[in-house]
Amino acid sequence: MQTIFSTMRAAVEAVPNARRVGRVSAVIGLRLTVTGLDRALGIGTRCTVHGEAGPVPGEVVGVDAAGAHILPFGTWDGVGPGTPVEIGGAEEGLRAGPDWIGRVIDALGRPVDGRGPLPPAGRARPVRAAPPSAFARRPVGARLETGVRTLDVFAPLCHGQRMGIFAGSGVGKSTLMSMLARRAETDAIVVGLVGERGREVQDFIRTALGEEGLARSILVVATGDEAPLLRRQAAWTATAVAEALRDAGMRVLLMIDSVTRFAQAQREIGLSLGEPPAARGFPPSVFSELPQLLERAGPGSAGQGDITALYTVLVDGDDMNDPVADAVRGTLDGHLVLSRRIAERGRYPAVDLERSLSRMLPDCHSDTENAILGAARAAIARYTDMEELIRLGAYRRGTDAEVDRAILFAEAAEKFLAQGRGEATPAADAFAGLARLLDDAGWPRGLSAQPSQPA
């Protein structure tokens, strides 16, 4: 009897996989409903819709009594009721590795730089994965030197930390990212351009990154004209590539620009499925997807590398209380606020020192560095308190000695913190320069001082 069953099992395993085909029952906006595959489809299953204009890959994003709901990795041109739908078609995993460094890929992991196919490396990994267990992670590592004076002193990054860059349009966000890509002390850089303008992709590669930056980077690109499923997928793909490099023992800098466009893509997906708009038009799924994405970065487990992540957040009208900004700020380990007011004064990077913070302070600085930072923050805060009166001419120098010292320091610090794209300063030199400015202004600094941080 056992021999018979073994023979039958071998015969069944030898039968090629049968094609599973359903039919389109409705197309409303981006959402396509398919019937006939109810038991074979689940959330996240990839499908191919064979329309008159050619096959269109899609993904199951919802299931109810009417059938499975699919969104496209493109458009539904040529698709109508009765169009056949087949399971499978689009690759669901990535075989990323160090050999991908220097390449540009799309949201589905396909090369778009005209340099031929990508070399497969290791096992295929899903682009959407659960964040690592909190108890499996190593602690955040030592300070990561970026060469940017403002960051290394006032809002330092550590290996495995996750930081947000909150900025409106045109305040130097891309310039700051290019400075980090060229100078940050990491083994590799993964850049996810989510919903970027098509015209600016080449500009970012040629101007912002340059040959030096591209030689140590992997770019994942989804432009603003692509389907929301692809824009969301680009952030997942960039994170999956960073995870592959981290598992290979590399220290990775992951930069995703921007999380806001990821949230907007998820909003389009959620609304197409009938989710109610909750906070300023964003459905609840947006605020459950954000931590799932952001928590995947960070230190790896023993024997692995780490992912230091920077996520840009576009704040409409410089409103830092935007729902997406609030959700991201509450999840990350610090934030940089780029100020339009500072950019208009001509100081780049336009980091607002009083509104930016790193949750790794004070542990990532030495006692001496913390003393310098604490004194600098105190002097800048004192100057800010009086800034309006100073600019109006209502304050006369000599009235208050402390304010006079704060003015001397703030004016010198404004010039010191301005930095060009190709300029890099070691952190030790940045602290030494800031200490000289404090001494020149006569501002006291003691080793017992601790850096004050905004709440």
UniProtKB/TrEMBL annotation:
Q: Where in the cell is it found?
A: Cytoplasm
Sorted UniProt keywords: ATP-binding, Cytoplasm, Nucleotide-binding, Protein transport, Translocase, Transport
**Mind listing the GO biological process terms from this record?**
protein secretion by the type III secretion system
* Compositional bias (Low complexity): 121-132
* Annotated GO MF terms: ATP binding; ATP hydrolysis activity; proton-transporting ATP synthase activity, rotational mechanism
What does UniProt give as GO cellular component?
Answer: cytoplasm; type III protein secretion system complex
Residue numbers spanned by region Disordered: 112-132
The keyword Transport appears for this protein? yes
- Note the CDD domains from the entry: ATPase_flagellum-secretory_path_III
The AAA+ ATPase domain, residue ranges: 159-343
Protein's UniProt keywords contain Cytoplasm: yes
* Name of protein: ATP synthase
